[in-house]
Amino acid sequence: MTATVEPEIGRARLRKEDARLIAGRTRWTDNLTLPGLLHMAILRSPMAHARITAIDVTVARKMSGVLAVFTGADLADEQGSLPCAWPITEDMKSPSAPSVAVDRVNFAGEAVAVVVARSAYEAADALEAIDVDYDELPVVLDMEAAVAEGADLVHEDLGTNTSATWVFDSAEAGTGSDVEQAIAEAEVLIERTYRQQRLIPAFMEPRSVVVDPTGEQFTMWSATQVPHILRVMLAMTLSVPEHKVRVIAPDVGGGFGGKLQVTPEEVLTFLVARRMGKAVKYTETRSESILAAHHGRDQLQKLTLAARRDGTVTGLKVELLADMGAYLRLVSPGVPILGAFMFNAIYKFPAYRFVCTNVFTNKTPTDAYRGAGRPEATFAIERLMDELAAELGVDPIEVRERNWIRHEEFPFTTVAGLTYDSGNYEAATAKAKELFGYDALRAEQRERRERGDSVQLGIGTSTFTEMCGLAPSRVLGSLSYGAGGWEHAAIRMLPTGKVEVVTGSSPHGQGHETAWSQIVADQLGVPFEDVEVLHGDTQSSHKGMDTYGSRSLTVGAMAVVRAADKVKAKAAKVAAHMLEASEGDVEFEAGAFRVRGAGATAKSVSIQDVALAVFAAHDLPDGVEPNLDSEATFDPENFSYPHGTHLCAVEVDTETGRVDVRSYVAVDDVGKVVNPLIVEGQVHGGLAQGIAQALFEEAVHDESGTLLTGTFADYLVPSAADLPTFTTDRTETPATSNVLGVKGVGEAGTIASTPAVVNAVVDAVRHLGVSDIQMPCTPMRVWQAIRTGQTDAGGLGNEAGGGLGSIDSSGGAR
Amino acid sequence: MRITVTVDGTTFTDDVEPRQLLVHYLRERLGKVGTVVGCDTSNCGACTVHLDGHSVKSCSVLAVQADGSEVTTIEGLARDGRLHPVQQAFHDNHALQCGFCTPGMIMQSIDLLADNPDPDEQAVREGLEGNLCRCTGYQNIVRAVRAAASTMSGGAGPEAEQVAPASNVAGGGDR
Ligand code: FES
Ligand code: FES
Fold first, then answer.
1. What is the predicted ipTM?
2. What is the average per-residue pLDDT within A727-739?
3. Is the pTM here over 0.90, yes or no?
4. Is there a contact between A727 and A665 (Cβ–Cβ < 8 Å)?
5. Domain limits of chain A?
6. What is the architecture of the domain spanning A32-137+204-254+259-292?
7. Which fold has domain A18-24+486-634?
8. Contact residues on chain A for B36, CB-CB shorter than 8 A
9. How many CB atoms lie within 10 A of CB A518?
């Protein structure tokens, strides 16, 4: 049993998941088919804001293969309102959110009718035969205009475009002093407005859902990150008894927060299948996905940082406008609030105030996208630290060092009220500088500046932290979130000694099957190969909170560890009986029970022996149940705080504005590592998405609210040719908040990288009078900044290629 | 229209709608669901298969255009239970996470290696430009393709689909 010799945790195991995926033996939702399966297609509004005055479906209904056409009016009585689980304030305004519009559309892409047909082709054909009359209403797109006096309204009945205003003030909370005073007394003030452009999660597998109503339970297969939450929410939204619904997330092709949702499409497929009494499938096209699946980011950040001349920061004030889009989806309102705790980052601010105003516009709703609130915060503070350094004429790393929490100061309670358990910013930074060749690159930068090279070098720093492992239930309660943050796991010991692990985490690319197998192999001393991980089906894994917020390892795997502890405790009783010893005298090591101190050659019983003995149940101690199976629910006591230092060098062609990432070094501290291969992969993917925000991606609307970046030809998800090779490394300070010492890694790369890249771009051209370039830093924007010396370059630019500089001046937030 | 196509070694004769895309024919008619659809504008490459030995995006080919041709999908790569070296390299180098882009990536990589048996990093990146991956940041995909190049003896077109002696089968060995 080699697996018991070397610990599995820390080992670069190749993934169990791969065998099927590399062979095309996959179970994507869209691969599934059932006898008599019907296909649904959705007609979507081309208008961003309009009254529906008439819908004529008569022609469509008569077309070949078309079984039914439903409009909003047909489904109004049963569709309920899509759930929002995070009412951030008591007076939060939340419009009713239909899955299919009834008399009014509030964003372009909203469903207005559905067709059910024998085939997907026939369903799509029939969409074209539906006639909808719209009466246009004024569109609300710009957040600042939306909250101004006398603005047109997205939802007339709410009487305002402001959904809620959420405030954290360190003086009021008792976690720090008064920021206004800090600002009044500041020796240096850095005031900036940054824009977090709207992004599209762009998971590669389009969303798909199949509902089979023909059994005793409704079975829903969905390309979702959250099968458990989806089940509860369907029950609550549609008044269908929870025990009559089973949700399965089969193979799911990426999510990044984009599949953390209870979608209109899921509800509609459910309603239609129930009506028809037949299984129904809906699979979105990519264009539909880009248009109608929730978007991410989209904030306007007004920032004031106060500091002393020596570089010590004294206060931070953050005023946000956050675009919710037309409706509040599952956790839309809470996304910017997650950032509230992160603007102060790793720095010892004595005073802090955060005010966020959530705003409705006639755009696709926003919600979680990788990092959710934390990338926005990290971008703002890391950009500000660079600005402070520039203002003071000191090295950006030096100014950070002056202010960050020193390693000997942990645990450290921040001005935002969180307690960071562990970290070592000095170590990560030292390692990153060395790998990067920081001093040599600075020297080259000076040399190029002096020479007046047309290609300038810029260096960007991001010393980030984040809070993840969502989340301690009582903290979620204090933030008015509608559920807890625990996770559940169960372990089943099979008679032959094999192990089934049931987890409430719901992977969609993260490699849980491999990582959980490694953890359980160590815990129970069984071979890695003998562990099977079951997930993503509410029938086998009945309890769970699913996967998002880098929570699976820090919360989900901790539940697995606790369940394993219980298995071992149960097994110890039986093993002692088998060894004819008292329970207190036996110890468990490397998969076997022995009498303590009896030596390695003494009689032992393996956990597999115990499993078989329990199965037979012929000779168990009195009162012992013939069952080793155990379950546990783990509620974390704190978040986890991965951190790291990322350094980016870019070359900027000052004649064309072109940006090339020359080198990128990421040193991350994610605590103990279960599988370094998986960790590295998560960092790579995270970096790609963060860099894409800095340089390529942006969802752009025109003045009528039409999404201009509606395909992969316009919305620039980077290809292999657009990205550099990353240098990744790690430092390790174990988390003290869980026994595994793990911190979570899913979002770190995305959170850290965006400011590192933008800081580098600005650094390359700062000597030309540039202090900011809006994201994405396209050639057009960079060139414009250089030419005009505009401190706030961006705004105009509408060349083809979507994200390549095409931000509409009147559309998105300026 | 009636077409005859050989897919992964089996010949099929079918009546198809003239407008049916090859990818839909493969998935819906033949059950070759290993090949997937990631977009509707021929940008993502998830649907990549080989048509007479060369990679094509099967969402941009009509089924009728494949009449008389040979199609290889991800499901037809492994022979006698042995993975194709490129499949093996993707596993060995952790070149996939969710795996949705993987079939297309592998098919495109094989085509790339057929044209250039020893590509440098830049050549791999450019050769995969038409295939999007949202999970991996591409680094390990590039590494996998270069690793496969070194284990394959090279060769163009369909020859590249032959299986070189592969060491082990995917399923959780050590790196
Ligand atoms: S599905 Fe063929 S290129 Fe995207
Ligand atoms: S592995 Fe998920 S898209 Fe490539």
1. 0.95
2. 96
3. yes
4. yes
5. 18-24+486-634, 32-137+204-254+259-292, 296-470+638-788
6. Alpha-Beta Complex (3.90)
7. Aldehyde Oxidoreductase; domain 4 (3.30.365)
8. 26, 28, 30, 205, 253
9. 25
